[in-house]
Amino acid sequence: MGIEGLRFVITGSATGIGAATAQVAASKGAKVMVSDLNDEQGQAVADEINASGGTAAYQHCDVTDTDQVEALMAATADAYGGIDVLHNNAGIHESGLAAADQCSLEQMPLDVFKKVVEVNAVAPWICSKAALPYLKESDWPSIVNAASTGAQSAYPNNSAYGTSKGGIRLQTQNLAVDLAPLSIRVNCYGPTAIATDMVTDFVKQSDDPAAFEKALINTSLIPRLGLPSEVGELVCFLASREAGFINGAYILIDGGSLAWRGTVEQLGME
Asked: Is the pTM higher than 0.85?
């Protein structure tokens, strides 16, 4: 049961949630293809997994490049004999592409908006299409997409990211419908502030980073940043044999931040 023996492709897995998911999946017996633009860190993730007794390989991939994506899927199939799970994790935020004063609607360059949407919403479609021939041959195929709490709630200076994540949530549901006749499940998850470089960059673009980070945490019923490994555990569950009746779902992993409209001070939890 679980994910033992399943063959994973994880995009954007040199750091953050992607790297943590690769490590969690490998620890549970999955075979993992790590992929990223950062070859040094991506190879290091694969090497660490192999040194720990897991099974991993690394393949460079720009998820917006169809040829590179197709090469990634082929390399995974060559290494492991097929693909069972595609985790579309690669993502960017406008705060990582533009200065803090260029993340509003008024100031954001159009090319920044387009790039965020391309990486976060178009690329998962490209990857899903390229993985499909291999997933069709799998005994337990699934796609797990990275959405966000921003797929249903608004945040300051987040219009490109929010647009892309709202799109990936609906893309997940539409692909779940399209691929149901092939018994391929498609799900996504919505994390809140997780302790990753992307969140750090987002916090830094505010006028008062310390206050902004506190505000993010204060809306959570579990008043801390989430851990990448916690998201990795969820991804592995959604791909697992125990999740066989979950399809087209958007699963929150947000510490309860969207369950209410208050702050933890009101609960005496400072």
From this structure: yes
